[in-house]
Design a protein that fits this description.
Pfam families: PIF1 (PF05970). Residues 57-116 form the DNA helicase Pif1-like DEAD-box helicase domain. Keywords: ATP-binding, DNA damage, DNA recombination, DNA repair, Helicase, Hydrolase, Nucleotide-binding. This is ATP-dependent DNA helicase. The protein is of the alpha/beta class. It has one domain: Rossmann fold, CATH 3.40.50. It has five helices and four strands, in the order E-H-E-H-H-E-H-E-H. It has helices spanning 19-32, 42-51, 56-65, 79-89, 131-136, and strands spanning 8-12, 37-41, 68-72, 102-107. The longest helix is centred in the N-terminal third of the chain and has 14 residues, at 19-32. The protein is globular. The chain starts with 7 loop residues before the first strand and ends in a 6-residue tail after the last helix. Bound molecules: adenosine-5'-triphosphate.
């Protein structure tokens, strides 16, 4: 389990290796410790950020109470969406990237890539191509 000094992690591996199983175990463990965990995936994030139908206040409340944010299928999170998420999470605490929440990304960058979206000026580049990614996670994707 991650401690306070291991505040962020990338769980990366090929299809069927057991990433989602590990995530489920992490969620169970963190919840048993009383942590406020939000688990979502790339399609879920699209729903929450753009067209979830939730009242803004509901999203804001959820952002502010989140202690750990887990994003599964992160290969489909574009660089632009990653920046947007970072901005949204800064509503919790503007002093830290992603509002200072514990961030756990999970996925396989050799599976589905982000979807390009001209309407949102999204060129479909990967989240790991975003400079914020380097600041948040020291991992290198080649
Ligand atoms: N330690 C393990 N021992 C045996 N089976 C496992 C183990 N971990 C996971 N599995 C099984 O392997 C299968 C794939 O696991 P899981 O869905 O977690 O993989 P994944 O890496 O998330 O896959 P994908 O990238 O395709 O979403 C599941 O049926 C799961 O129950």
């Amino acid at each position: 389990m991650l401690n306070d000094e291991q505040n962020r992690a990338l769980i990366n591996g090929p299809a069927g290796i057991g990433k989602s199983t590990v995530i489920s175990a992490i969620v169970r463990s963190l919840k048993s410790l009383g942590k406020a965990v939000q688990l979502t995936c790339s399609t879920g994030i699209a729903c929450h950020v753009y067209d979830s139908g939730l009242e803004h206040q509901d999203v804001l409340k959820r952002v502010k109470c989140t202690e750990t944010l887990i994003i599964d299928k992160c290969s489909m999170i574009s660089s632009r969406t990653f920046s947007s998420l970072c901005e949204i999470m800064s509503l919790k605490n503007n002093d830290y990237l992603f509002g200072g929440v514990q961030l756990i990304l999970c996925g396989d960058f050799l599976q589905l890539p982000p979807v390009k979206d001209i309407l949102y000026n999204d060129d479909g580049s990967f989240c790991f191509e975003n400079e914020l990614f380097d600041q948040l996670l020291p991992h290198r994707i080649q």
